[in-house]
Amino acid sequence: MRVKIFAKSIVVLNSREACIEALIKTGTDFQGRPPLKRNNIVLPPNVVFSNFSDRQVLSRRLFTKALKAYGPGVMHLENILQETIQSLVDDIDRRSGCAIDSAELSIGYVCCVIASMMFGEKYSYDDELCHQMNQVNSQVIKATDPFSSGAVLDAMPFLYDFKFLFRDQHKKVDSAKEAITKFIKTRIEEAKKSFDANQMRGCLDYLIEQQMLEVKADGQPSLDDLMLEGLMVNFLIAGLETSRRSLAQIFLDLLHDPTLQKTLQAEIDSQFEPTETITLKDKVKLPRMEAYMLEQMRFLTQVPFMIPHMAVRDAEVAGYKIPAGTVVLMNSYHVAHNPDVFDEPFEVKPDRLIDESGKLVDRDHPLRENFLGFGAGRRQCPGESFAKSRIFLFLANILQKYDVKVDGELPERDVRKYPMSILLTPPSVKVQFTRRQ
Length: 437
Ligand code: HEM
Hints:
The chain is of the alpha+beta class. It is built from 15 helices and nine strands.
């Protein structure tokens, strides 16, 4: 489909085949990103929004290596994560009887997890650093929202120079830029001062070490400070914004479907004693839980058009010629809700992913292949396994210990009605947690 907005053509690919062709089969043809004026002002050049270039490839490689070095399976961080889960449980117990807002709980947990991954220490919800992360993040999101009136500035960037127009937008952009720059620079400065190669803490230390090790022929580091800032921005914003939405969806599902809650709890109870700690290596013991996590991600498809791609040269997809510079959106939302593939696509039905022997269906099963919620190919989300593992730990530990019930009104669970932006946002809900006997 081709849409014209402000005299610019945008091509939307609506089938799995066309998306895979553009994302994988055509090599680098569609791996660009269009310039987004407000993003480029607020944020330093970074992996997510930078156009395809040697610098973007290098910075993505470093991002992925840092995440591997300090992601799932690293003992030091696994221990911190267990402590974070414990403090989540303590916090819920402390507030026993009071309803807790699902959005507040989710963002609190995700901030702690992302801060630990970045800085390698243990954080609790009331840590000042977590508050700052949350605040800075929402300022950036508000200032760059592609579905706000400020989107006109992205579409017609020359308007940005007329400062008397869109005063409110300019204010938002300037203060978001100031807040994120200050936050990131301060963290980098502090980490450099206290850096000790014998006591590596988290992704930031890893990147500081790479900065020292990877030097170009002219003696300059391949990873300069600006790139380092961009990488930290990606950990913060890409990490926070997405995982919190998955958790919000999970609460809605559990509250809308008490049978789902009971089924997942029965699976946990069949594998673990009530006091036993569930860790990441236990994931294989809980196929129903995994099926549910995949199914809720499909249902939500929270980045419905992925991040906009752009043709970096004249190219072709699905038999159509696409001129260089054309913005290409991958409609993973439609792929994940295609009624020809999914029976009742707007229902959450984890059982569809379980085979006759009770196992999760293979990765190449059509129901799994038609989920492109993390993208595919060279710009595929590098945070996928990190996100899934953190969400798994949250869900498994909460359901092992608590029954969850709604407090007050239960908002509708219909992804077609969620507010639309670059990300889809499930409504938050007040939750009552009751310790399981
Ligand atoms: C449920 C959680 C998540 C979902 C659904 C998700 C989804 C996505 C999607 C759809 C893209 C765009 C792919 C494309 O345009 O082709 C993306 C890109 C990206 N994601 Fe995620 N993501 C999640 C979590 C994370 C986390 C936790 C991190 C970091 C810690 C992360 C870091 C990134 C980065 C850096 C990119 C840009 C890759 C590039 O442009 O080369 N994501 N993600």
